[in-house]
Amino acid sequence: MQRVFSFEIRLECIRLYEEENLSPGAIAKKIGTVHSVVERWLMLYKYNGIEGLKIKDYNQQYDDDLKSKSRVFTWYYFN
Fold this sequence. Notes:
mainly alpha; 63% helix; elongated
């Protein structure tokens, strides 16, 4: 199961990297994950700023109109 770290933890990792010059590996050990996770956060922060560290909700809700169009398209395409 994938572990989700809070926005505050991610931001603290960025601070440790920039201000205390800790390596991604050292930071990862400190929070209990692997270095590639910390490296990904560093990259997201570099290209997207603080917004890149925010946890996104991938379980979007779609409106009824879009669902209806999808059903019509699926029926037309597969029949």
